[in-house]
Amino acid sequence: MKRHSVRNNIIKMLIVFMCAITIVFGWLFYREKQDETRRIKDDEYGQYIVELNEVKQLYDSGSTDADEKLDAVMNELREQKLDTGKSGLRNILIIYIVVLCVVIVLFLYIYVCVLRPFDELEDYASHLAAGDMDTKLKYRRVNMFGSFTWAFDHMRTEIVHARRREQEAIENNKTVIATLSHDIKTPIASIRGYAEALVMNMDATQERRERYASVIMKKCDEVTSITNDMFIHSLHDLDRLVVKSDEVEIKPLLEQILSDIGLGMDIVVNGDITEAVLEHSDSGRVVQVIENILSNAAKYARDTEISIVTECISPEKLPRNVHVSGADMVYRLSIKDHGTGIPDKDMPFIYEKFYRGENSGDEPGAGLGLFIVHYLMDRMGGDVELVNHADGLEAVLYFAARKVC
Predict the structure, then answer these.
(1) Pick from 374, 364, 367, 373: which is nearest to 353 by CA?
(2) Sign of CA dihedral 348, 258, 187, 238
(3) DSSP one-letter code for 134
């Protein structure tokens, strides 16, 4: 509406200027005719009087040339007046047309190069105010506000990028909270299991009672640690989740994990647990990874046997799709259940956050377990591989390690 108002005002101003110019040139035309008439009377009046006297003398003398002379004088006078009038009118019309063209061109230039860019900026600012960040402002080099127009559109681009970064930060923040919330479930499940064992008087001996109490206290400490992570990182990116780079003796740690979480699970260790020292690892995060895998196996392959196999292998024996950084030796930890496995069509997406495959059924969950496992293994320089077998699903964890001699 405002743009049309400006255009209408420009047209009105142009019409006023054209009318004023027309009036001025009409007055000039009138004055020019008056001046021509006066010049004819003043400059040529005497000459024509002399010629007319000559004609009168010829009439008086009875000369036959009198009529020809009179016609010649009258034609000369008529042609002089017509030529003078036409010449003055032509010059005035030419000047009038030139001035009108200059005025029209000047008004068009002012509108195109000055007023229209301001109209576009005004409309563009209205779009930005309404939250429309997708509309681009065209940059024209021909107008005098080209650089300002570019700067205005660059501001829009920066706002879009800032909003995108803000949205990514919000999503990462949600992921951190969801990840840490998910990790609370496993120790709480253990606490509940051992608490139920105490209620059911399964602690027949003092030694067993002390072990149950010790596990409950340890799991409470894990919950405290995770909630501290949630508090610290609730407003930060996922990359700021602390993962230490230490050496971890895997055998005692794995034995402790199986001892703590094994209640209510049918876990079988095939052979002895291979001794090794994991490199670039965080013992707390290793516990999270293994407990997540075991928790998934117990949830989706309920009431089936879970088998564990450990071994040290050389990096050359790694599958093609597995990468372990900076490792002279790789520790391979296999956890296999005897459930239905993961559908092949879901396999490409299993490490995406919040993704849940068809095998999840009505089981509660947020689709974060494998995402957490994959993320933490990557942060520790290791990798994870899921393999479907005819008799169940195998989750294999690969850690950079050195074998204990």
Answers:
(1) 367
(2) negative
(3) S
Inter-axis angle of helices 116-129 and 2-43, nearest 10: 170
Residue 111, amino acid:
Y
The whole-angstrom separation of Cα 136 and Cα 155 is 11
Contact 173, 234 (CB under 8 A): yes
Q: At what angle do helices 2-43 and 66-110 cross, to 10 degrees?
A: 160
Contact 103, 21 (CB under 8 A): yes
End-to-end CA distance of the chain: 85
Q: Which residue has the tokens 């407990």?
A: 291
Half-sphere exposure of 399 (CA within 13 A, CB side): 33
The CA distance from 96 to 85, in Å, is 16
Alpha carbon 217 to its chain centroid, in Å, reads 47
Give the up-direction half-sphere exposure of residue 94: CA atoms within 13 A in the CB hemisphere. Answer: 6
The structure's pTM equals: 0.49
Helix 369-379 crosses helix 146-199 at what angle (to 10 degrees)? 110
Q: What is the largest CA-CA distance in the chain?
A: 172
Contact between 250 and 399 (Cβ < 8 Å): yes
Counted residue by residue, the chain has a size of 405
Report the candidate in 177, 166, 118 with the shortest Cα–Cα distance to residue 145: 118
Alpha-carbon distance 104 to 90, whole Å? Answer: 21
Whether 278 and 401 have beta carbons less than 8 Å apart is answered as yes
Q: Could you report the per-residue pLDDT of 194-238, keeping only the tens digit for each? A: 787 777 777 667 777 778 778 888 888 777 777 766 655 554 455
Report the relative pairing of strands 276-281 and 392-403 from DSSP bridges.
antiparallel
pLDDT winner (highest mean) among 137-151, 164-178, 184-198? 184-198
> CB–CB of 361/342 below 8 Å?
no
